Amino acid sequence: MLLTRIRYHAPAATQAYPFNLPWLQGWPGLTFTTPITILVGENGSGKSTLLEAIATNYEAILMSGAALVDNKEYDLARELGAHFKLEWTHKTRGGFFFRADDFISYLRATRERQAFATQELARIDAVDPTSLERQPYLNTLAEIRHMYAANLDHLSHGQAFLGMFERRLRSGGLYLLDEPEAPLTPQNQLALLALIHDAAATGAQFILSTHSPILMALPGATLYELGDTLAPTRFDDIAHVQFMRNFLADPDRFIHHLFPDS
């Protein structure tokens, strides 16, 4: 285990968001007992805010390598994180903070880097194919090929996502993942589940939020549900899991209820 505990010291005034989240009232903090911790709850319950507050507290990097320090988007989470005390067995700089929205932007920027490097190589080669000017662009293309093991233009978002995770998950890293299932089909969610499980077995730690019952089923994970409280829960007791089971068992019943004339 890398991060072992969060201690929370509430400010004197707790009326403004995020300090007015129900589960924060009287919350002492959270102890991590397994390498994988999964946060579940409805939209607006504060799962993302909690992950962002942890990330800003110890100045985690984004998946792209960018820092959170000057990013105004995380100001509210930063206010909450300032009231956290993180306790570690070993404080790591490995790992990253991930949001699905950030990945789409990162992938777009990476494809633009690839296209620019390719164009510049063609321009230089047309004049002098032996020029040393080629080297930075060759390095860029080699880095991208190493990251994805394929031509990025030939990969879907989901395939690129899995390729990135397969090469970026390392022993000794702390990974904060906010709804990582977003770009993935159910089958690819299973592939991500396997990647997380294998990395955790070699010493990585994960704290993730999800709406995916597939990821909620990660073997050995500790599940917490955010609502009126932040409390341990079991897979079979999660409302989202129960709803999905009922829907898949009889989708017509739900559809008929929504659209009685259909």
Describe the structure.
The structure is a single chain. The strands form two sheets. The protein has a six-stranded mixed sheet, with helices on both faces. It has a three-stranded antiparallel sheet with strand order 2-1-4, with helices on one face. It has helices at about 45-55, 75-80, 100-125, 135-150, 155-170, 185-200, 215, 240-250, 250-260; strands spanning about 5-10, 30, 35-40, 85-90, 95-100, 175-180, 205-210, 220-225, 230-235. It has a single domain (about 5-100, about 170-260), classed as Rossmann fold. The N and C termini lie far apart (about 55 Å). With about 260 residues, it is α/β, with parallel strands linked by helices. The chain is globular and about 65 Å long.
Architecture blueprint of SSEs:
Elements lengths: L2 E6 L20 E3 L4 E5 L6 H11 L17 H7 L2 E5 L6 E5 H28 L6 H15 L8 H12 L5 E5 L7 H16 L3 E5 L3 H4 L5 E5 L3 E4 L5 H11 L1 H8 L4
Parallel strand pairs: 3-7, 3-8, 5-6, 6-7
Antiparallel strand pairs: 1-2, 1-4, 8-9
Helix pairs in contact: 1-2, 3-4, 5-6, 8-9
